[in-house]
Design brief:
Layout: H1 6-9, H2 17-22, E1 35-37, E2 42-44, H3 48-66, H4 68-106, H5 125-136, H6 138-154, H7 167-180, H8 183-202, H9 214-217, H10 224-260, H11 274-293, H12 295-321, H13 324-340, H14 342-347, H15 363-388, H16 395-427, H17 431-439, H18 444-449, H19 455-485, H20 494-553, H21 556-566, E3 571-576, E4 580-586
Antiparallel strand pairs: 1-2, 3-4
Helix pairs in contact: 3-10, 3-20, 4-8, 4-15, 4-16, 4-20, 5-12, 5-15, 6-7, 6-10, 6-16, 6-17, 7-13, 7-16, 8-15, 8-16, 8-20, 10-11, 10-15, 10-19, 10-20, 11-12, 11-19, 11-20, 12-19, 13-16, 15-19, 15-20, 19-20
């Protein structure tokens, strides 16, 4: 299917075999109760849109009225309470998500095609992967790829029992870092994306979270239960997105200051701090507004492809000028330590021994619980965006693309940057660790790049990459919130997309003013708590949906339709194991991707 037909085809009640046998018996359509405001410039759900605006407005007003000092104190206390009280819950939940999606992949349900047996892929594999990376973890990988290994190198996680600033601490640092950026977070994204894609494309329901609960709620997804689910999804999306935007703008600010200041070029002093970062948010959000106005194909897809090329350029540069053999060894040893300790790591809370429950305030609380809360809060945005671009792929292909490949790429990226920083700390001048200890997380990557030739050039490239990730994240988030607040419609007025892109910048700026990165992190973790409950229920509803799909694929009625289709010479029918039909396509079509 051509990209031009994308918006008309996805999630709509189109004609075909899928509609006749698989879509629910419902007269409702996406956005059928929407209200048009300001002369058609807004096409919004009458409950979710104003409800979201009211709650967001209240949050902004309360934060501003508290004042900067009091707001900071409140956000710090909130984060500490959530991590110490519900840390175990986040850890158990993420494991449930991982094992659930692995079950869907390796069971008979893995052969089910998203969109039905007649569905075609709408994006090439390269474009699909580019958008996955840009939407998923781009800013975070840039921010933490040096900072996190340096933290663990200087203060090894209790789990590994290694001595600080030794080779053993380096191996522990890489294993712990890969753990935080590996299978577990991508399992959250994959599960959410699979659920949204299945119920939208295979069942013809609106592309919103309420649709995933059709097996339990039926038509009630269009009532108050559905409104509440979508409102929680809007908040999780918004604050998860703002956390990443806050991290990104902090690194852009530091990068510009480090590269143009006395550390590298010595051209000019770029101020750092909350006010410069808010100014950067305004400027970069303006760029994001222009991009989001161009839509999915015109803006997001192109920028995502540019992001991927820039990432490969920066990665390739470091592999060439950096300690190449050491990086290769770091990848092998770090990945091996991660895999070898995976089950213990993924269930570790530190409550038994090593400081008891208070250890939740160290590696597990400060990092693992924050990450899991951040990923869960981020999952409506990433999951819906993944669903939006994944029609035509089987469940197994979808999970391999979303779970395995990004994990491997993340391991390579972390090994290159984190491994280079470890090499510098163990065998070089130690500047990477010294800069981290003295100047903090945002400087870590730029201090590392300074140790190699063309440090200023690579530093500027890294800064540009963070900016483009900021823009694509804002763009993608705007499209997702548009879906949630417009009753699941795919086409919304341009003014509406611009509105949400602008509001995301406003909320990120307010949170930065009210408490810096701690406020952003607290907002992400707190919105993730109720959303975790929704995702746990979603595991069951997705199972019910896939089970029902497979039963229909095995039914006599479906077999009768397939026998009629098979008689046509221009149609090719493929089956899984010679039994269940998984693909119906034009036999003259020799391509697999657009």
């Amino acid at each position: 299917m051509a990209d031009a037909e994308h918006d008309e085809a996805t999630g709509e009640m189109s004609e075909g075999l899928q509609v006749e046998l698989f879509h629910p018996d419902s007269e409702r359509e996406p956005g059928d109760t929407n209200k048009q405001l300001l002369g058609g410039r807004f096409d919004v759900h009458p409950i979710v849109f104003p409800g979201a605006l009211l709650l967001i407005g209240l949050f902004i007003a309360i934060t501003l009225l508290m004042g900067q000092e009091q707001a900071s104190t409140v956000f710090v206390g909130l984060r500490t309470f959530l991590e110490s009280t519900f840390g175990w819950f986040y850890i158990i939940a993420v494991n449930v998500f991982l094992f659930t999606i692995l079950y869907f992949t390796f069971s008979k349900y893995g052969s089910i095609r998203i969109g039905g047996v007649e569905a075609e892929k709408e994006f090439s594999t390269f474009s699909w992967m580019a958008m996955l990376f840009s939407a998923g973890m781009g800013i975070g990988l840039m921010f933490y790829s040096v900072a996190e290994p340096m933290l663990y190198f200087g203060s090894p996680p209790v789990f590994f029992g290694a001595e600080a600033e030794t080779g053993a601490a380096g191996a522990a640092a890489m294993a712990q870092t890969i753990f935080h950026w590996g299978l577990s977070p991508w399992a959250i994204y994959g599960l959410v994306g699979l659920g949204l894609a299945f119920f939208s494309f295979n069942r013809g329901l609106p592309l919103t979270f309420r649709s995933i609960f059709w097996p339990l709620l039926g038509e009630r997804i269009y009532g108050w239960p559905g409104h509440v689910i979508d409102l929680v999804s809007v908040f999780a999306t918004l604050f998860g997105l703002c956390t990443s935007l806050g991290l990104g703008v902090a690194q852009v600010n530091t990068g510009l200051s480090y590269v143009f200041g006395s550390n590298m070029l010595g051209v000019m002093d770029v101020p750092t701090g909350t006010l410069p970062q808010i100014a950067l948010i305004v400027g970069i959000t303006a760029i994001a507004v222009l991009s989001v106005a161009a839509g999915l194909d015109g803006g997001v897809k192109r920028l995502s492809t540019v992001n991927l090329y820039l990432m490969f350029a920066l990665l390739g540069f470091l592999l060439i000028v950096g300690p190449t053999l050491y990086i290769a060894g770091t990848f092998s040893q770090g990945l091996g330590a991660y895999i070898g300790n995976f089950l213990s790591l993924t269930f570790f809370t530190g409550a038994i021994g090593a400081g008891g429950a208070s250890s939740l305030a160290t590696t597990v609380g400060d990092w693992t619980v924050f990450y899991w809360g951040w990923w869960i809060a981020w999952s409506p945005f990433v999951g819906m965006f993944i669903a939006r671009i994944s029609k035509g792929r089987t469940v197994r292909e979808f999970v391999v693309g979303v779970l395995v490949l990004p994990t491997l790429f993340s391991a390579v990226w972390l090994s290159a940057f984190g491994g280079s920083a470890l090499f510098n700390s163990l065998y070089g001048n130690g500047q990477a660790l010294a800069a981290y200890n003295e100047l903090g997380q945002t400087v870590a990557m730029f201090s590392l790049l300074e140790q190699f030739p063309l440090g200023a050039v690579s530093g500027l490239l890294a800064t540009l990459l963070v900016i483009t990730f900021f823009v694509t994240s804002s763009d993608s988030g705007s499209l997702v919130i548009d879906h949630l607040t417009s009753g699941g419609k795919h086409d919304v007025p341009r003014t509406q997309r611009v509105f949400w892109a602008s509001l995301e910048g406003v909320v990120a700026a307010v949170l930065l003013w009210g408490g810096g990165l701690t406020a952003l992190q607290a907002a992400a973790i707190s919105t993730a708590l109720p959303f975790t409950v929704i995702l746990l229920l979603m595991c069951y509803t997705v199972y019910l949906g896939l089970r029902n799909e497979y039963e229909i694929l095995e039914s006599e009625e479906f077999r009768g339709h397939i026998e009629e289709i098979s008689d046509r010479e221009d149609v090719a029918v493929d089956s899984s194991g010679g039994d269940v039909v998984t693909d119906i396509s034009d036999s003259s079509d020799t391509t697999t991707d657009d």
